[in-house]
Amino acid sequence: MKIFTVKVKPNSKQQSIAEQPDGSLTIHLKSPPVDGKANQELIMLLAKKFKVPKSAIGIKSGLSSKNKLVEFAIEPLT
């Protein structure tokens, strides 16, 4: 099990994932933070990048915050 600290920036022009020097991730999402759309896009983007199923990724804390703890149930591929 792996936990990442993620800072989400919704309403961006393009999707991107940047790893910070402290090991956290900054993720730019196209979706607005409305009705969980940004959280769905976050999970989809992380699943694609780390090659894990979407069901293996959960938001442990920060559902309605820009700062989140994201938990991988299986070890992600880097």
Question: How would you describe the overall organization of this protein?
Answer:
With 78 residues, the chain is α+β, with helices and mostly antiparallel strands. The protein has 1 helix and 5 strands, in the order βββαββ. The chain has one helix at 37-50, and strands at 2-9, 16-19, 25-28, 57-61, 67-72. A hairpin with a 5-residue loop joins β2 (16-19) and β3 (25-28). The longest helix has 14 residues, at 37-50. It starts with a strand and ends in a 6-residue tail after the last strand. The mean pLDDT is 92.
Estimate percent helicity: 10-25%
For the sheet with most strands, the description reads: 5 strands, mixed
Instruction: Please state the structural category.
Output: alpha+beta
Strand content: 25-35%
State mean pLDDT (0 to 100 scale): 92
Total E-strand runs: 5
Amino-to-carboxy terminus distance: 14 Å
Radius of gyration, taken over Cα atoms and rounded to an integer in Å: 11 Å
Query: Strands across the major sheet, in which order?
Result: 2-3-1-5-4
Number of helices, where a helix is a run of at least 4 consecutive DSSP H or I residues: 1
Oligomer: single chain
Detail the poorly predicted runs. Answer: none
Summarize the structure.
The protein has one helix spanning 37-50, and strands at 2-9, 16-19, 25-28, 57-61, 67-72.
Descriptive labels:
single chain; 5 strands; about 80 residues; 1 helix; alpha+beta; five-stranded mixed beta sheet
